[in-house]
Structures are given as C-alpha cells and as structure tokens.
Write a structure and sequence with these properties.
By secondary structure, the protein is mostly helical. The chain contains six helices and two strands; from the N terminus they run H-E-H-H-H-E-H-H. The mean pLDDT is 89.
Length: 129
C-alpha cells in the first residue's frame, strides 16, 4: 500500500505520467487483484490515505481549481485529484490465457475486463514469417 501511495502522489501531486505494468507472475496474493480492480474501476484504491494525508493532497490541487474558476470544495478537489491520477496512469496487465486462472480472475474482478482493452496475441501466420 505504501508503494501505491507513492505512485498516486507522483500521478496527482507531481503530475507525472506513469505506466503500471502488472503480470500474472506478480500475483503473489489474489487480494492484490482487488486493488488493481479498484484502480481500473474507480481510479483510486479505497482507504489508501488517512484523513491528514488526503487533506495534503487536496490542498496540492486546490489552487489549480481556483485558478481555473472551478469549485474548490473538499469533494471537488478530491474528485479532480482522482481524475488527474486517472489521466496520468496507464495500467498494463499481461496475463496468460492458458488454464483457469485468467477466467477465474475475470469473474472475480470484473474491472479486468470491463475497464480494459484486451489484445490477444496469437502466433504469426505462416505468410508473414
């Protein structure tokens, strides 16, 4: 979770673009896929930050909203922060379709299917080899 806090700090507060590459070999605990599912569906991991940390992130974006003439309420700032993170984060999942693992994970974590573009890589045809 601390690594995710650092990642979201770079995405939102520092306005850096990032690629988060996650392969099926990285799945040490299926619970981590719940975090990935939340990142894909809502743009943020719930309860990642305590109130003080969240307030610091909100204050980092408040002046940007005020300068643009947008509402700078706590809720509006947090929504803008999450949207900024979503815009700067690209999640790349690389998983093998062999066996039941991917099928089971897609059923348990629908964001893996509903919020992604799936590229199936097949062997190259003989005529292009």
């Amino acid at each position: 979770r601390e690594d995710l806090k650092k990642l979201y700090g770079m995405l939102g507060a520092e306005d850096q673009r990032m690629v988060f590459l996650f392969t099926d070999s990285h799945v040490a605990d299926e619970g981590f896929l719940e975090l990935i599912n939340n990142m894909l569906t809502s743009g943020m991991v719930p309860a990642l930050y305590n109130d003080a940390e969240k307030e610091g992130l909100i204050s980092s974006i408040r002046s940007d909203l005020t300068a643009k003439g947008l509402p700078d309420s706590k809720e509006a700032c947090w929504a803008a922060y999450i949207e900024k993170c979503r815009a700067n984060l690209h999640v790349v999942l690389a998983m093998s379709p062999v066996g039941e693992a991917l099928r089971s994970r897609c059923r348990n974590f629908p964001g893996l299917v509903n919020n992604t573009v799936i590229d199936w890589f097949e062997p190259w045809p003989e005529q292009v080899r």
